[in-house]
Specification:
It contains two helices and 24 strands. With 346 residues, the protein is mainly beta. It has two domains: 191 residues, Immunoglobulin-like (Sandwich), CATH 2.60.40; 112 residues, Jelly Rolls, CATH 2.60.120. The strands form five sheets. Strands 1, 2, 6, 9, 10, 12 and 13 form a seven-stranded mixed beta sheet that branches. Strands 3, 4, 5, 7, 8 and 11 form a six-stranded antiparallel beta sheet that branches. A hairpin with a 6-residue loop joins strand 9 and strand 10. The longest helix has 25 residues. The termini are far apart. It binds calcium ion (3 copies). One calcium ion binds next to strand 16.
C-alpha cells in the first residue's frame, strides 16, 4: 500500500472536502422542492427593461422597474429596485457592483400560490450574483427555501420557495448584489436577466406566470448630432461623466405647433440636499436645422434652488428636435423627462 507524505495527505483531505461540496451544488441546482405534477398553462409576459450607462464612482440610484399583472384569478406585483452602484466595492474585492432589491407579491383569488422561483442569468462568465446568505430575506407565507448563488455558468443564482400551507397570498423581498467584475469598466455592455416564476393553483388547474426582467448597463454612443439617441416621451434615467461619457445627444420628433417641455432632474439631491452645491450639467435645445434655441447653464445652488430645471419651447417646424446634455462639473445621474403640453406627440 502506498504511503502518503504530509503534502499528499493534505491533498487527499482537500479532495474529500471538495467532493461533497460538488455534490451539494448539483443537488441545489436540481432543486429539492415539490413541484405540481402538471402545469396546464404557462404565460410568459413581456420583459421589463431597465438600463443605465456604465458608471464610474459611487452612486445611489433609486431606479425602479415594476410590473403589475392582474387577471381575475391572480394579481401580482413584481418589482426590482436598483439601489446603488460602486465601481470599486470594498465589500467585493474592488469589483464594480450594482445593488438591487427584489420584491414579489401575489394573491390568488380562490386557490393558492404553490411555488416562487427566481433565477439570475448572465452569459458573462466572471460575474457573480450574491443573495447575502438570505440573511435579509423577508418572506410571508412562503416557507420551504432552496437557493444557490455565487454559481458558475449562465445561471448565477436562484431562489426557490414554496407554500406548503396553500395560502392565497405570498410576499418575498430580498436584496441582491450583482458583482459585475467588468474587464473594461466604463465601456462593457452587460445584461442580467432575472425571471420571476410564480406557479399557482386557480381552484382547478396549476398555472405558471413568468415575468422576465432585463437589467442592463450599456455604453451610449450619443456624443454628437449624427449619433443622437432617439428618445420617447416620459422620464429616462441617464448619466454623464468627464471621462468616457461627457455628452448625451437625444432627438425627439415634434410636429409644428407642439409645445414641448424638457425637464432635467438631479435625483441625488432628493436624498442628500446638503451635498453638491451646484447643478453640474448644461442643457441645450436645437431645432431640426441644429440652431440653438434654448439653453440652461451650469448653476450653483442653495438649498432653496429647485432640483429640477426645465425648458419649454414651441416647435415652429416639424422634424427631429435635439436635446443635448453636457457634463460641466461632477459626474451625474440625471433624469430627463420630455413631455408635450398641448395634446399627443406626433
Ligand atoms: Ca444613455
Ligand atoms: Ca450618457
Ligand atoms: Ca454620451
Amino acid at each position: 500500500m502506498k504511503k502518503f507524505n504530509g503534502r499528499e495527505w493534505k491533498t487527499l483531505l482537500i479532495l474529500s472536502v471538495l467532493i461533497p461540496i460538488g455534490l451539494l451544488s448539483t443537488f441545489k441546482l436540481t432543486g429539492i422542492l415539490s413541484s405540481p405534477a402538471t402545469i396546464a398553462e404557462t404565460t410568459t409576459l413581456n420583459a421589463a427593461i431597465w438600463k443605465i450607462d456604465p458608471m464610474m464612482g459611487i452612486f445611489n440610484i433609486w431606479g425602479q422597474v415594476k410590473r403589475n399583472y392582474e387577471i381575475g384569478e391572480i394579481s401580482t406585483v413584481q418589482c426590482i429596485d436598483i439601489s446603488d452602484f460602486n465601481d470599486k466595492s470594498g465589500e467585493y474585492g474592488g469589483s464594480d457592483t450594482l445593488g438591487m432589491n427584489i420584491t414579489l407579491a401575489a394573491t390568488v383569488k380562490s386557490g393558492f400560490v404553490n411555488r416562487v422561483y427566481i433565477s439570475f442569468r448572465e452569459d458573462y462568465e466572471n460575474s457573480i450574483v450574491y443573495l447575502h446568505n438570505l440573511e435579509l430575506l423577508k418572506l410571508s407565507n412562503l416557507t420551504e427555501i432552496n437557493y444557490g448563488d455565487w454559481l458558475r455558468g449562465d445561471v448565477k443564482a436562484f431562489l426557490e420557495t414554496s407554500n406548503p400551507s396553500r395560502l392565497s397570498n405570498v410576499y418575498l423581498h430580498t436584496p441582491v448584489a450583482w458583482i459585475l467584475r467588468s474587464a473594461n469598466k466604463g465601456n462593457q455592455t452587460r445584461l442580467l436577466e432575472i425571471d420571476y416564476e410564480i406557479t399557482y393553483f386557480n381552484g382547478s388547474i396549476y398555472k405558471k406566470i413568468i415575468q422576465p426582467f432585463q437589467i442592463s448597463i450599456q455604453p451610449d454612443n450619443n456624443n454628437d448630432f449624427e449619433d443622437a439617441e432617439e428618445i420617447g416621451l416620459g422620464a429616462h434615467l441617464e448619466y454623464v461623466n468627464s471621462q468616457n461619457d461627457p455628452e448625451d445627444y437625444y432627438k425627439t420628433w415634434l410636429d409644428q405647433g407642439q409645445v414641448c417641455r424638457v425637464q432635467l432632474g438631479y435625483p441625488w439631491f432628493n436624498y442628500w440636499p446638503q451635498t453638491y452645491w451646484y447643478l453640474g450639467l448644461e442643457t441645450f435645445i436645437y431645432d431640426p436645422d441644429r440652431n440653438l434655441i434654448a439653453s440652461l447653464p451650469y448653476q450653483g445652488r442653495s438649498e432653496s434652488t429647485p432640483i429640477t430645471t426645465e425648458m419649454t419651447f414651441t416647435a415652429n417646424t416639424t422634424g427631429w428636435w435635439y436635446i443635448r446634455v453636457k457634463y460641466f462639473v461632477a459626474d451625474h445621474i440625471y433624469t430627463l423627462d420630455v413631455s408635450i403640453l398641448n395634446g399627443e406627440s406626433g
